[in-house]
Design brief:
Rossmann fold, 6 helices, alpha/beta, 15% strand, 240 residues
């Protein structure tokens, strides 16, 4: 099945934190959205894989995601190599997205930068005819190259190439993020503290989106970067 948008995250919770509002708004516009998590986040200090899977399922239901799957790459140790690229290429060719969303090339967690490069490279390679892949039925796949690859801003303060207006969708974004309760602020938890388990972090998800919105004169926004030059066909697009 063809999807309009395919969002990749190095870990479950990345897409919710980076582009949850964009996904929710796109779904409300009747776009088909699929999410692929590269790893199960098994090295996370808090929680475990079983809990993370349950949280991911809950977050997906909150956003209303059409399809979500996990590639089961090794958390912390996957590589941007031929083996991993071919797996990602097969997914791109299977879902045929026009738009791909992925982690930022520059972020605190090493998997985010690796995941960004892996997805970006796979999007290019997916359009090369001499790279052959097969689907689950062992049928040769046709080439497919997404039109746009966008990197969502997550932890680091990066100047966005553009900000997507998510006014009216910040609440659902926050609900989806909070589904990952094992990772977030809990004063009663006996597990070790992490950068994202602080009260300041969960507050920052909201105020950062509001500040992005302030910059474009709306309620809330999410910032994105692109390695390619972006284009528009109508100057009135700047007026909406």
């Amino acid at each position: 099945m063809k999807y309009d948008i395919l969002a990749f995250g190095a870990h479950p919770d990345d897409v919710e934190l980076g582009c949850g509002g964009t996904i929710a708004k796109s779904l409300s516009q009747k776009k088909k959205v699929a999410v692929i998590d590269l790893t199960r986040g098994e090295l996370a200090t808090r929680g475990n894989v079983k809990i993370r899977n349950q949280e991911s399922s809950m977050a997906s239901k909150t956003l209303g995601i059409n399809l979500r799957e996990n590639l089961g790459f090794k958390d912390g140790f996957f590589k941007n190599d031929k083996k991993h690229q071919l797996i990602v290429i097969s997914k791109i060719r299977a879902y045929k997205p026009d738009i791909v969303l992925c982690n930022s090339y520059n972020d605190r967690h090493i998997d985010h930068g690796k995941g960004s490069s892996l997805v970006s490279d796979a999007c290019f390679l997916s359009g090369l005819e001499k790279i052959e892949t097969s689907n689950l039925k062992n049928k040769k796949q046709k080439v497919w190259r997404p039109k746009v690859v966008l990197e969502y801003i997550q932890w680091n303060e990066i100047k966005p190439d553009f900000i997507f207006d998510i006014s009216g969708y910040l609440k659902i974004k926050l609900e989806a993020v909070k589904a990952y309760s094992s990772q977030l602020f809990n004063p009663d938890s006996s597990e070790s503290e992490t950068p994202i388990s602080s009260l300041n972090f969960i507050k920052s998800v909201s105020y950062r989106a509001k500040n992005m919105g302030r910059l474009i004169n709306c309620e809330a926004g999410e910032g994105f970067n692109s390695r390619q030059i972006l284009s528009i066909k109508d100057l009135n697009s700047f007026l909406t």
